[in-house]
Amino acid sequence: MNELRTRDPILFWAGALNLLGLLIATLLSISDTRLLLGINPWIKPMKFFTSITFFLWTTAWFMAETRDLPRARAIVRWTIAVAMAIEMILITTQTVRGVPSHFNESTAINIIIFSIMGLTIAVSTVAMGLFLSILRRDTPPRRAGYLWGMRLGVALFLLASIEGGVIIANGAHTVSQPDGGPGLPFVNWSTTGGDLRIAHFFGMHAMQALPLFGFLLDRTVGGDRAVGGDKPSGLSIPATVVIATAMVWLAIIVGLLVLALQGRPLLAL
Asked: How far is CA 107 from CA 38, 100, 112, 113, 198, in A?
């Protein structure tokens, strides 16, 4: 945690505030007997607080792997920190009010809130596009798996963010079923219809999974050997495996998206 705070104090404390929000939301959920779309209303902010904490802390960790461009770094950190703060304030406000935060067009105020949430996500996505562009270009062989995992993880994160536009265009999280039907525990992914959140989830969290996988490969397989020989020429074995894994990961995301658009639940697999 000290290393994380050193790498980017702003994003560290922004993530810590979301972690605190998760704790508060969890405690409030225990005594709240209301139901919103069939589940405890605090489940949604709990999910978002968790996901945003990972997002902010992962970006903070990766800041050490960016090129020496202070202004670009500042734009990224402040944009996503402020955007995620606004996002969570609005989601929490709607939870307290006992109304859905997403796709809620029942009143003018609800339309405004959902529109602002969409804007914050769009701005944050643009900032992460800038972040991808300033990631370091060199690839030391002994860290190649990790660095390629970082680059490809952020790229898949961006694709998943753009895929959120499909969810907006659909006007709901689910396909062929109304939101709020039977779902898996906590995540509430539909068990009776297609759910666009599943592909979105797997894409967003490639940002954590691929770099971690690459880091483990660097530590176990090592980057001294290239594919096809013992000399450190070409892509190292960890880098090659991570790139191949990212391609498979992308195929899975596309498959999950197609499955959802067909109105079929994940359990249909």
From this structure: 21, 12, 9, 10, 29
Domain range for residue 66?
1-137
Q: Are residues 132 and 11 in the same domain?
A: yes
Alpha carbon distance 128, 75 (integer Å): 10
Same domain, 156 and 58: no
- Per the structure block, which two tokens stand in for 141? 């062989």
pLDDT class of 153 with cuts at 50, 70, 90: very high
Q: Which residue has the tokens 């993530």?
A: 15
Letter for the amino acid at 195?
Answer: D
| CA atoms lying within 13 Å on the CB side of residue 245 | 23
Q: Give the 3-state secondary structure of 119-138.
A: HHHHHHHHHHHHHHHHECCC
225 phi/psi in degrees, rounded to 5: -100, 135
Q: How much is the pLDDT for 101?
A: 94
pLDDT tens digits for 94-107? 999 999 999 999 99
Q: What is the DSSP string of 28-54?
A: HHHH----BTTB-TTHHHHHHHHHHHH
Residue with structure tokens 């797997």? 202
C-alpha–C-alpha distance, residues 180 and 39, integer Å: 8
Q: How many domains does the chain have?
A: 2
